[in-house]
Write a structure and sequence with these properties.
Elements lengths: L1 H7 L3 E8 L2 E13 L4 E4 L2 E4 L3 E6 L1
Antiparallel strand pairs: 1-2, 1-5, 2-3, 3-4
């Protein structure tokens, strides 16, 4: 729900995600959401939707 609102209103988000046995943050505007392949493109990175732990909207 937060991701849809961020895309619709062109808001900056911060995502906390898990990758390679560690936690990371990515901050930026969501460039695209690929529901078929379950990826989100934000801050030049492709993040698997399953790896996202939390979402903050700035």
């Amino acid at each position: 729900m937060k991701l849809q609102m961020a895309v619709k209103n062109d808001l900056t988000v911060e995502l906390k995600y898990f990758s390679n046995h560690d936690y990371y943050n990515a901050k930026g505007k969501i460039a695209s959401i690929d529901r078929q392949n379950k990826y989100i493109k934000v801050a030049g990175q492709y993040l698997p939707i399953e790896s996202i732990i939390d979402v903050w909207i700035d």
